[in-house]
Amino acid sequence: MSGSSRHAAALPERLTGLLEPVVTAAGLELESVRVGRAGRRSLLRVVVDGEQGVTLDDIALVSRAVAAEVDASAAMGSGPYTLEVSSPGVDRPLTESRHWRRAAGRLVRAPVTGSADPVEGRVVEAGPAGVTLEVDGEPREFGYAELGPGQVQVEFGKLSDRETSADGDTDMAGGGEPDGH
């Protein structure tokens, strides 16, 4: 491995050590740091999360703090770079107990060791050793070691009875009697 390849491989690790205290000071957790290219610029992607989720204000605050820290340390070198700070998306795999805990109430699907079929259920509780899923109306406990990466399932709700009239047409007027026409 060449010297520049070793430097590139060590950069995300170095940045993680540099940025973790900055993100923690903002009351969030550093999920990942990735460095890539965007045309002629370097691209620094930082993913943060928190127990109560992440707001746009949180992202703005952390973005300013991360940019100041990176600039002061010259960790990205002297060339231009683009900074992206975001929260994990719904497609983030659930691989750690904190991920499962933050998915409480959500429908998830995960592979199960020794089973050809994944398990799908709602996260009832997630503790340090495992998770309880409601599967087909029954609670089932799984240790993290027996589950592969979980995936939150996107659920689409149906219109409430108030929003749909008896004949299936959407009631945009908000109620009232038929006008008889």
Description:
- With 181 residues, the protein is of the alpha+beta class.
- It has helices at 3-25, 56-73, 97-102; strands at residues 29-38, 41-49, 81-86, 107-110, 119-126, 130-135, 138-143, 151-152.
- It is elongated.
- The chain starts with a helix and ends in a 29-residue tail after the last strand.
- Strands 7-6-5-4-8 form a five-stranded antiparallel beta sheet. It has a three-stranded mixed beta sheet with strand order 1-2-3, with helices on one face.
- The chain has three helices and eight strands; from the N terminus they run H-E-E-H-E-H-E-E-E-E-E.
Annotation keywords:
about 180 residues; alpha+beta; GMP Synthetase, Chain A, domain 3; SH3 type barrels; 3-stranded mixed β-sheet; elongated
